[in-house]
Amino acid sequence: MNPCHAPRRLRRATECLLAITVLATMALPCRQTAAAGETPRPLRVVATPLASALEWTGDSPTGVMVDVWEDLAGRLGRPTEFVRADSFGKQLKTLISGEADVALGPIAITEEREKQFDLTHPIFHSGLRIAVRQRTSSGLFDALESFLSWNLLKLCGTVLGLALVSGHLLWWFERRQNEKSFPGNYGRGLVEAIWWIACTIITGSCDDKHVDSLLGRLLAYAWMIGGIVLLATFTSLLTATITADRVVGTIHGPRDLAGQVVGCQAEAVSVAAVRQRGGIPEEFASFREALDALSLGMVDAVVGENQQLMSLIGQPDRRDIKLVGPMFESFDFGIGLPAGSPLREDLNTAILRMREDGTFERIKGEWFGRHD
After folding, report:
1. Nearest 10 degrees: CA dihedral of 336, 338, 344, 346?
2. Is 89 helix (H, G, I), strand (E, B) or coil?
3. 71-104: string of b/e by CB count within 10 Å (b at 16+)?
4. pTM (2 decimals)?
5. Which of 43, 195, 211, 279 could cross-link 216 (Cys pair, CB 3.0–4.6 Å)?
6. How far is residue 85's CA from residue 50's CA, in Å, rounded to a whole number?
7. Which of 151, 130, 135 is nearest to 260 (CA)?
8. What is the end-to-end Cα distance of the chain in Å, rounded?
9. b vs e for 107-129, b when ≥16 Cβ sit within 10 Å of the residue's Cβ?
10. Arithmetic mean of pLDDT over the chain
């Protein structure tokens, strides 16, 4: 090999390497520009019909939560592909399985759910309410059912106990000097004494019997005065019980759920809340099915999120249903994400910005009106 040719070959190799480096450097911005111009993958958002929050109209959902999400997606610069779930339980299963990127709530933020999937910062704050049938029947059966209320039974038991004790005393005081009205025989005498007390409570006296002894007359006087009070108390309590039961039934608040069959949306926080209060939860795929069961008398009450129940019972076909009692079991509601989702931080930041710039209040005002 000619030693003179080595420098030439080295020079050519260096020139080729330099040319390749320049071409690669020029191509890199082109590839970056192409990547930057690509449309981000649409987020799959699973949504189920929720009264007052989200409704499906054809192939696209509408509602306050849809407006909230569209604002959030716009801030993230991500397009959306909505996926319909026919029930709340199916929505959660779709999210947990990873078939969706987002579950559009509102979804109550609880410790149990945080173990299954991620949740964003709160969007709304609400709680549970109770819906019952309005009872307007005035039949004999309803009146007898009202008569058997616990308060009335306690009053009747108290009166019977007092009548039994004082009947013994009255017979004992009268048995020797007034055998015509109160025979000396224990059984017959006690029956006549209790009969005298019953007549005195109802009419104020007993014409075919008289009391002769001093102690007997003192006892009789006490029953004459006490009978007026007892009769007035019994009448007012019976009237109040019948009136209340015809308006809202026997359930007036969360404490009255014990022993009652209560309709709930499947997988909702209301199921555990009803069970904790001694109720028997009956799960339905949707609130509408639960309220239909309530109208048909299949359940005693329905427990669900306050705003959704208010929206549903305000419809013309729900005039037979009424909300009772205060809101209980308050919850914060957020948006669901698969466990470990990279969207969580970006969504939380966007939610905080929407809260600070008043976007949440504006959207809620457009849908529900503004309330001071």
Report:
1. -100
2. helix
3. bbbebbebebebbebebbbbbbbbbbeeebbbbb
4. 0.56
5. 211
6. 11
7. 130
8. 97
9. bbbeeebeeebbbbbbbbebbbb
10. 79
Q: Is 337 helix (H, G, I), strand (E, B) or coil?
A: strand
Domains of the chain as residue ranges with CATH: 140-248 (1.10.287.70)
Residue given tokens 């457009």 in the structure block: 366
CB neighbours of 84 closer than 8 A, spacing ≥ 6? 46, 47, 48, 56, 61
Instruction: Tell me which residue of 303, 254, 288 sits closest to 131, measured CA to CA.
Output: 303
Task: Give the residue carrying structure tokens 């709530």.
Answer: 105
**Distances 366 to 9, 11, 121, 262 between C-alpha atoms, Å:** 77, 74, 22, 33
Closest-CA residue to 196 (of 183, 177, 181, 215): 181
Q: Which of 284, 367, 356 is nearest to 75 (CA)?
A: 356
Amino acid at site 146 = S
DSSP symbols for 225-248:
HHHHHHHHHHHHHHHHHHHHHHHH
Cα distance between residue 322 and residue 341, in whole Å: 41
User: In this structure, are residues 12 and 6 in contact, taking their beta carbons and an 8 Å threshold?
Assistant: no
Read off the DSSP letter of residue 158.
H
Sign for the CA dihedral angle at 260, 265, 266, 270 comes to: negative
Q: What is the mean pLDDT of residues 265-283?
A: 92
